[in-house]
Amino acid sequence: MFYFYFMKNSSILKFSILALIAVTFFGCEPDHTTITAVRINKIKIINYPILTGGSSWDDPLIGSTSGPDVSWAITGHENYSASAHFTDCTGSALEFTTTNNTALPVFLNDPNGTYVLSIWDIDGLDGSDFASSDDLMASVSFTPYSSGDTGTIYAQFEDSDLKVQIEFTYLFE
């Protein structure tokens, strides 16, 4: 009886065949588009303050002044800091990558959260600023994920004295 019903109602038969084809070729797997994390592969510091209040960042009591010794830190849901730095920087762009910085890649587990990237002058590396604390040079807030982004993108963030470009890779479940 079931067979005769389909034969008499050809539109139901056509719909059933199309549904069977759609399920066969496109499957019923769930759509894997929920972002779970963001991987930072590269941090490029394009612009940063070369002086602090008109003076060099590294201003020793004895010897000549030098440019800042630059490192970075990310704070937010998780906290990370560079395990490498650039010394005596002159204002040219600085690029922290997975090959020159063992702290990268970094995985941010709150893709829609707000993070702060800070750059620091590391003191005491070359005898300058002996016994002083590292100096915050500049910082910028950022949210790593923007709805609709996929794959790997380069995002640029800037604040008055700081311009950075970060390479993000989005990880979905």
Q: Please, could you describe this protein's structure?
A:
This protein has 173 residues and is mainly β. The protein has 2 domains: 1-30, no CATH class; 35-172, Sandwich (Immunoglobulin-like). 14% of the residues lie in helices and 38% in strands. The protein has helices at 2-8, 10-26, and strands at 35-47, 51-52, 55-56, 70-75, 80-81, 94-96, 106-108, 115-121, 135-142, 152-159, 162-172. Strands 1, 6, 7, 10 and 11 form a 5-stranded antiparallel beta sheet that branches. A hairpin with a 2-residue loop joins strand 10 and strand 11 (162-172). The protein starts with a helix and ends with a strand.
Number of helices: 2
Straight-line N-to-C gap: 46 Å
Estimated share of beta-strand residues: 35-45%
| Number of individual domains | 2
CATH architecture of the largest domain: Sandwich
Classification by helices and strands? mainly beta
- On the 0 to 100 scale, the average pLDDT is 83
What is the H level of CATH, i.e. the homologous superfamily of the largest domain?
C2 domain
Low-pLDDT segments, ≥5 res = none
What is the β-strand count?
A: 11
CATH fold-level assignment of the largest domain? Immunoglobulin-like
The ordered string of helix (H) and strand (E) elements is HHEEEEEEEEEEE
User: What Rg, in angstroms, do the CA atoms define?
Assistant: 27 Å
| Helix fraction by DSSP (H/I, runs of at least 4) | 10-25%
CATH class of the largest domain: Mainly Beta
Largest sheet: 5 strands, antiparallel
